[in-house]
Design goal:
heterodimer, A: alpha+beta, Ubiquitin-like (UB roll), DNA polymerase, domain 1, five-stranded mixed sheet, 5 helices, B: alpha+beta, Aldehyde Oxidoreductase, domain 4, 3 domains, seven-stranded mixed sheet, six-stranded mixed sheet, 18 helices, 27 strands, about 30% helix, binds FE2/S2 (inorganic) cluster
Chain lengths: ~160, ~725
């Protein structure tokens, strides 16, 4: 076990953990941030996506060691129940969820996408989200939600 | 209106609704939320009948301690069963409350009206709310069925857009899934499964792994092998160390003979199906009517396919140490049937069902019987090894892919004879498959739960018997809605097939409808009749014709598609011949290599009276996308040594870049009962795709999935 510090959702956190522990378990079990999900542990599904220093990463395969002194944003840091981020508001508006398990990862991916692209076209959105699996078939609504959010965020 | 079966089983009013002093209400259902939006639809029904705002209602799903037993959440039955029950119960409760209020306010019942729980009468000032009147109290009475639910034209809330219950927490990441349950002294488990169904554990070095950091216990019982640790990553690390050290003895290989051969060669039980029901009458031989001018045959196949939940199966279990506690074991689960699971657990663990409490907790979408029940027994076995500590157990992705019960591989042989006008005179349908319904139900000396098969004293799976329920498993939707003068439908339950199977969304219907609706297209083409027209000529059911016409109109059926390599296909069904009607028109493009791209889809559906239109569309479109994924991409691959489809790379599913644009047309029937819709679009989707491919490149695809290799293979066979 080692002392590791990183910033999560704007807060400096100090932890005693084994450095190779995947960030996913630190977030979920040590910091109680369970919005980030385990889906495959193999970087194949996107359920565990978080933002590290502005880039999307898959926390299932990122050792916490690699996040020392980094800024990590999880779904809980995007917005709150009382004050949802415009992307979350767009997902609510479009009712873009069935079981919802994939949705935190989708919102993280959308956030990174909209931070980088102003008014992405349909093709770009699909490409950027293509690593994110949804088994319920909520895709059309997620696409609509991202476009709606883009109008909000990038106008 | 007939009494819903759920209500017959659970007549106590208090088991369905509680009114609280603070102006909120709790509605109970024995069904479970699996991402189908059932909580929202049920709350809406109760809000409507009671005349209270939808937002006041919280919905509690299945828990054996709460008593409400609705058995399974399956087969698109929740709206008809729980929905109808709640409609009747809440109508009766409203009536009771009005009678109480009439006495209290000293006004005749007829003068009273309710607005958001506030009871009053025009031209008087006296009012009282439900919660002032009855908050915190119990009815202590049984449903008597005297009150009449509202008529559709009296509805004020049903049919209006509402938000999905809980969506704020889903998008905020605060939704509480079973995976997210927290206990102060939670321990984490992981399972080490054999490399293949028939492998026995010959040696494992537990001593070394026991010494790894955080390891609390290694549980070994026969070839059931698991580890419990303080931290989750420690459990994962210990599990992979155990896996490394374990040596296995392969008792038997998986039979890798082409499954289409096994399906027709192996021993089987065959039953004639009449009006969707298997019967014991002798199976007639196929007879060709004398007026027939042409007889056609075709065979269709679907491989093993998986549920593939995005969140692997999980359970949390706690063995109580307290003496005198009547509940010894508590299990939190995302199973679709908490009561049947309780009995199965009791049986497997040699306990009384009363000693076990099974609580439903939301999981990721499951789409049928996946590993949810199995992992509950796994977790219980671990919890029993460390009493007093709750154990959370999540399967790894590989566990889920390799051990969940798959949707069975199926083979369907069709033969039809037509007259000079192309009208079908006789129709023959032979469907070969393993069992579709292997949900855990205890049978003396047997168990349906995976770990039971692996323990030192194993309880093998129960024997397979053909399902005789109307549109049960293999024969679901094998009986077409079309009017044919002569129909011969036979289901064949085939034995000794290589992979474990159970209920996958739609059971046999997906492949049966794929076959029927593809074959209808073939017969239409042979008779040189438009595929839509050909179907209508064989239909009498007006609602069926209406969805076909609505989909065709929206898709511009009959207008030419100008681009080379593009095609359009149509298909339809009524799920189980009694639920939602759905037609699908798919437009595809096929490139020179045989890649099929879905361009555009239209759905037209009639689910009776619409309660929650947006939720209905979500279910219909979600069903279409999942079925498109089965159709284009999915097949469980295996070899003698085990399953090869171990993750999303070896078992790919449809991605954002492959999902078509979808437009959905809903036909509302306010005077018809609401019909389950979660499984309505699956079958038609597969057939609409195959028909569109034929329209595009003139090739008939009859073996799922339609990968590039399959298209090339079919072309080479021409
Ligand atoms: S859990 Fe990390 S990508 Fe699937
Ligand atoms: S909403 Fe269920 S997996 Fe996407």
């Amino acid at each position: 076990m080692e002392k590791i510090s990183l910033t999560v959702n704007g807060q400096l956190r100090e932890l005693e953990v084994t450095p190779e522990t995947p960030l996913l378990y630190v977030l979920r079990n040590d910091l109680g941030l369970t919005g980030t999900k385990y889906g495959c542990g193999l970087e194949q599904c996107g359920a565990c996506a978080v933002i590290k220093n502005g880039e999307k990463i898959y926390s299932c395969n990122t050792p916490v060691d690699a996040c020392r002194d980094s800024e990590v944003t999880t779904i809980e840091g995007i917005g709150t129940l009382e004050k949802p981020h415009p992307i979350q508001a767009a997902f609510i508006e479009e009712r873009a969820a069935q079981c919802g398990y994939c949705i935190p990862g989708m919102i993280i991916a959308s956030k990174v996408l909209l931070d980088k692209h102003q008014h992405p076209d349909d093709k770009t959105i699909r490409q950027e989200l293509s690593d994110h699996l949804c088994r319920c078939g909520t895709h059309p609504r997620i696409l609509r939600a991202v476009k709606r959010a883009d109008q909000e965020v990038n106008s | 209106m007939s009494i819903s079966s759920s209500l017959e089983r659970n007549p106590d009013l208090d088991s369905w609704l509680q009114i609280h002093k603070d102006g909120t209400l709790t509605l109970f259902t024995g069904k479970v939320e699996i991402g189908q939006g059932i909580k929202t639809a049920l709350a809406l029904i109760a809000a409507e009948e009671l005349d209270v705002a939808f937002e006041r209602i919280t919905v509690k799903t299945a828990d054996t301690a709460l008593g409400l037993n609705e058995i399974f959440t399956a087969g698109s039955g929740s709206m008809e069963e729980s929905g109808s029950a709640i409609r009747q119960v809440t109508a009766e409760i409203r009536e009771l409350l009005l009678q109480m209020a009439a006495k209290r306010l000293n006004l005749p019942v007829e003068r009273l009206s309710v607005t958001d729980g506030l009871i009053g009468a025009a031209e008087t000032n006296s009012t009282i709310t439900y919660w002032e009147l009855f908050g915190g109290q119990k009815f202590n009475r049984k449903f008597n069925g005297e009150a009449k639910p509202k008529k559709a034209d009296q509805y004020q809330q049903i049919g209006r857009p509402v938000s999905l219950i809980g969506i704020e927490s889903l998008v905020g990441g605060t939704a509480d899934y079973i995976q997210d349950m927290k206990f102060p002294d939670l321990a984490y488990g992981r399972i080490i499964r054999p490399p293949q169904y028939h492998a026995e554990l010959s040696r494992v070095d537990t001593a070394e792994v026991s010494a790894l950091p955080g390891v609390l216990k290694i549980v070994q019982d026969g070839r059931f092998l698991a580890v419990i640790a303080e931290r989750e990553e420690q459990a994962i690390r210990a599990a992979s160390a155990l896996k490394e050290s374990a040596e296995w003895n392969f008792v038997k290989e998986l039979d890798c003979t082409d499954i289409s051969e096994l399906l027709v060669q192996n021993k089987r039980t065959s039953l004639l199906v009449v009006n969707g029901i298997p019967i014991d009458d002798p199976i007639p031989t196929i007879a060709i009517p004398s007026a027939a001018v042409r007889t056609s045959t075709a065979s269709y196949q679907r491989p093993y396919q998986m549920h593939g939940s995005i969140g692997p199966s999980t359970a949390l279990a706690l063995f109580s140490e307290a003496e005198n506690n009547p509940v010894v074991l508590t299990v939190w689960t995302h199973s679709q049937g908490v009561f049947p699971l309780r009995v199965s657990l009791a049986h497997a663990l040699d306990m009384n069902p009363e000693q076990i409490r099974v609580v439903h907790k939301q999981g990721a979408g499951c789409y049928g019987h996946n590993g949810a029940d199995d992992v509950a027994l796994d977790a219980a076995l671990l919890a029993r090894a460390i009493p007093g500590r709750p154990v959370l157990l999540t399967w790894m992705r590989e566990d889920e892919h390799c051990w969940e019960p798959y949707g069975p591989a199926m083979l369907i042989k069709l033969q039809a004879s037509v007259d000079a006008q192309g009208q079908i005179l006789s129709w023959n349908h032979d469907v070969f498959s393993d069992s579709h319904i292997r949900r855990p139900r205890p049978v003396e000396g047997h168990s349906g739960l995976l770990a039971s098969w692996h323990r030192a004293t194993p309880l093998p799976p129960p024997e397979k018997k053909p399902n005789r329920a109307p549109h049960g498993g293999i024969h679901r939707n094998s009986d077409p809605l079309y009017k044919f003068p002569q129909k011969r439908i036979v289901k064949h339950l085939v034995e000794d097939l290589p992979l474990r199977t159970s209920a996958l969304r739609t059971l046999g219907a997906f492949a049966n409808i794929f076959a029927i609706e593809s074959f209808m297209d073939e017969l239409a083409a042979e008779a040189e009749i438009d595929a839509l027209e050909f179907r209508i000529r064989h239909l009498e059911d007006k609602r069926a014709i209406a969805v076909l016409e609505a989909a065709a109109e929206k898709a511009g059926w009959g207008t030419p598609l100008k681009i080379e390599g593009m095609g359009r296909g149509i298909a339809f069904s009524q799920y189980k011949n009694l639920k939602c009607y759905a037609a699908v028109v798919m437009t595809v493009a096929v490139d020179e290599y045989g890649n099929i791209q879905l361009k555009h889809a239209v759905i037209a559906a009639d689910a009776g009276q619409i309660v929650d239109a947006d939720g209905l569309i979500n279910q219909l479109e979600g069903g279409l996308i999942q079925a498109a994924s089965w159709t284009l991409k999915e097949e469980v691959r295996y070899q003698a040594e085990g399953i090869l489809s171990q993750d999303w790379e070896s078992y790919p599913i449809l991605t954002f870049e492959e999902v078509p644009e979808i437009e959905t047309v809903l036909i509302n029937r306010p005077d018809e009962p609401y019909l389950g819709s979660g499984e309505a679009t699956s079958g038609p989707t597969a057939a609409a795709i195959s028909n569109a491919v034929f329209n595009a490149i003139g090739v008939r695809l009859r073996r799922l999935p339609f990968t590039m290799e399959e298209v090339q293979k079919t072309v080479s066979e021409l």
